[in-house]
Design brief:
alpha+beta, 5-stranded parallel beta sheet, globular, binds adenosine monophosphate, binds glycine
């Protein structure tokens, strides 16, 4: 089969690699991709992920068997519906089902109607009643812009002032434009976070191994929130029982709810969960693979990825099998200043891998005038390694990175340390 992957990040690099490793797949192209992918033998095509018509033309003219949509924006803008209207297969939810990520209010209402465990909340479209609500409830409290805000729409306020500030930024300064027309105010939940992603076809679903992201920029979970600085899978401190509960009380009722309400979901459903004293609860849903979670989860797949996705798209039962042992770990390399003002244009140092199960997945890179890779945005690349346990994976990753001069770039030195600490206690 020929597969087109839509997107340009390290996530799409990992998805393309999983397709390339599939016996059923002979050719993989990523649009628009990035020049780092070319270095690992993947073809890229300079078509923007938002140009649905050009992507459709490309797939038609070159006889691709299906497209796999990586990022949320084209999904929320209805790319899967557009492909379908041309008789083409694209993996991902349609516009209706993608609302589960596109509107936090939509997701919260769906969970409320179906008793799916999540933080209690209220939605507001005006400043004054929102301020009253915050004053009444006190801090900590969580303020969320309703729409897509590139990971910047959430404020976990530790004081009432901070919460009121966030409300002012949204309603008065119009910080998020249309995405901030509504605001969800949520109860603060305490516990360890983890990500549970599933392949979904209507009411059928196949869960992936769980993983854990590291959202803060710096070691020890300090610094501002980012798109994610690293991840690992599985997460030993989250028990089987918690995952079972999350599947039966969250994943199953959610896909059944979307189906029964006339918006059946096909694609990857990402549940961002928190393990509270009352069990797992939903922090957020995404309508796609997580980034950087994908880069540590997909390398654990031992069955044919291309065949499974094609089977789902054509109404047949897919097979997914996963590595039973070991730990996969990924460390993000970011430009100095990320997630604030960036230093870019830095040449990428050579990263020497020690075995064929290690990868560098590229995201924010471009070619300079001498055809060398240089940094071009916040998250630049992710180093993925496998280890026999958390400690081994950590030492493999950092023995590669700690010997390289990453001036004008940085990375966290403590990916998976929470797991190590939990295992030691
Ligand atoms: P999001 O952008 O929705 O992934 O949220 C960013 C981060 O904010 C999450 O990963 C959590 O760490 C935190 N967060 C979001 N909602 C809550 C909540 N209700 N209680 C505690 N932390 C939250
Ligand atoms: N890692 C969080 C996300 O993909 O949204």
């Amino acid at each position: 089969m020929k597969v087109l992957v839509v997107g340009s990040g390290a996530r799409e690099h990992a998805i393309a690699t999983a397709f390339l490793n599939s016996k059923s797949v002979s050719e993989v192209t990523v649009a628009p991709g990035n020049p780092g992918m070319i270095k690992s033998g993947i073809k890229v095509e300079a078509i923007s992920e938002s140009d649905h018509n050009a992507l459709i033309e490309f797939v038609k003219n070159n006889n691709y068997d299906f497209a796999f949509i990586g990022p949320e924006v084209p999904l929320i803008e209805g790319i899967v519906d557009d492909f379908k209207s041309h008789g083409l297969l694209a993996f991902g939810p349609n516009k209706a089902a993608a609302q589960i990520e596109g509107s936090k209010d939509f997701a919260k209402q769906l969970m409320q109607r179906h008793n799916i465990p999540t933080a209690s909340y209220r939605t507001f479209s005006e400043l004054n009643p929102a301020e009253e609500y915050v004053k009444k409830h006190g801090a900590p409290i969580v303020i969320k812009a309703d729409g897509l805000a590139a990971g910047k729409g959430v404020t976990v306020a530790t004081s009432v002032d901070q919460a009121l500030n966030a409300l002012n930024e949204i309603f008065v300064d119009n910080r998020f434009g249309k995405a901030g027309a509504k605001v969800v105010i949520e109860e603060f939940l305490d516990g360890e976070e983890f990500s549970l992603m599933s392949f979904v076809s209507g009411t059928d679903f196949w869960v992936m191994p769980i993983s854990q992201d590291h959202k803060r920029a710096h070691d020890g979970d300090t610094g501002p929130n980012t798109g994610g600085m690293g991840a690992y899978s599985p997460v030993p401190q989250i028990s089987e029982d918690v995952v079972k509960q999350a599947i039966s009380q969250i994943v199953r009722p959610t896909v059944e709810a979307l189906s029964s309400e006339g918006m059946p979901f096909t694609g990857v459903l990402y549940a961002g969960l928190i393990n509270t004293a009352q069990g797992a609860k939903v922090i957020e849903f995404n309508a796609r693979f997580g980034d950087p979670e994908t880069e540590v989860v997909l390398p654990r797949l031992t069955s044919d990825f291309g065949e499974a996705i094609f089977n789902i798209l054509t109404g047949k039962k897919p097979t997914f099998t996963w590595a039973k042992n070991g730990v996969t770990l990924g460390v993000v390399l970011a430009s100095k200043g990320y997630p604030g003002k960036l230093v870019t244009g830095t040449p990428l140092p050579q990263i020497s891998l020690n075995s064929s199960d290690q990868h560098v997945y590229y995201s924010g890179v471009k070619l300079d005038e001498n055809n060398n890779l240089v940094t071009s945005s916040g998250r630049v690349a992710l180093l993925q390694v496998n280890g026999k346990d958390v400690k081994d994976a950590q030492s493999k990753a950092y023995s590669i990175l700690d010997n390289i001069d990453f001036s004008n770039m940085f990375y966290r030195h403590d990916i998976a340390s929470k797991a190590l600490k939990a295992l030691q206690s």
